[in-house]
Design goal:
Elements: E1 21-25, H1 33-42, E2 47-51, H2 57-67, E3 72-76, H3 81-90, E4 95-96, H4 102-109, E5 115-116, E6 118-119, H5 122-130, E7 135-138, H6 146-154, E8 161-164, H7 173-177, E9 185-187, H8 193-197, H9 201-212
Parallel strand pairs: 1-2, 1-9, 2-3, 4-5, 6-7, 7-8
Helix pairs in contact: 1-9, 2-3, 3-4
């Protein structure tokens, strides 16, 4: 399948500023990608992280990039330099990893698109700051210390900004979003499995709209 034409850069200064919530999408059937993305965009969530956890991930990114112009589609669960290349070729406009290595970080920095490398410790944050990276994914957010941990980081490392992901839902998302070093949160609660299975895009749009109103 031919790759779509290259897309322009993200139109805002940061992926973290596109919306308060970035939906983390696991696609099992690439044919669901376009209507799902349209529902999320209509609900006010234009930044969509499609994970590479399934064989349909790259095809889903390609479909959204070519069929939903108002979406800013990114690739998540990026763990190898090869996936960086494949995701960008498919049309990903940003990259998200659960963690990082020197090789993966080098590939993301050379990709030409924004990226959020995953961190869960202070040393990882400092190491990224040394490399000029100031925007990161905090994962797994709840298990790694939650809002209390991020509050503690804000004092000594105010230049670092985060997208916390992992264990976040509508009840605790506002607490994360109130922190000065949090730009947005990642989550799946607006993507219930039964709604996707039923192709109930109206329900997903309504849940997205509620998520977009959290801040």
């Amino acid at each position: 399948m031919a790759s779509p034409s290259p897309v322009g850069p993200v139109s805002t200064s940061s992926v973290l500023d596109l919306a308060p919530v970035v939906p983390v999408v696991v696609i099992g059937d690439a044919s669901d990608a376009v209507p799902l993305a349209r529902a999320l965009v209509a609900g006010g969530l234009p930044a969509i992280e499609v994970t590479l956890r399934t064989p349909a991930g790259l095809d889903a990114i390609r479909a959204i990039a070519g069929g939903v112009p108002d979406a800013v589609v990114g690739a998540g669960t990026v763990v190898t330099p090869e996936q960086v290349t494949a995701a960008v070729r498919a049309g990903a406009r940003f990259l998200v990893s659960p963690g990082w290595t020197d090789a993966l970080l080098t590939a993301m920095q050379a990709s030409g698109v924004p990226f959020l490398p995953g961190v869960s410790t202070t040393s990882e944050v400092v190491a990224l700051l040394e490399r000029g990276v100031r925007e990161m994914k905090f994962f797994p957010a709840q298990a790694a210390g939650g809002t209390a941990y991020l509050k503690s980081l804000a004092g000594p490392l105010p230049q670092a900004r985060f997208c916390p992901t992992g264990g976040i839902g509508p009840d605790n998302a506002p607490e994360y979003l109130s922190l000065p070093n949090v730009g947005c949160v990642g989550g799946t609660w607006m993507l219930p499995a039964d709604a996707i299975a039923a192709r109930d895009w109206g329900r997903i749009e309504a849940l997205a709209r509620s998520a977009a109103a959290l801040r």
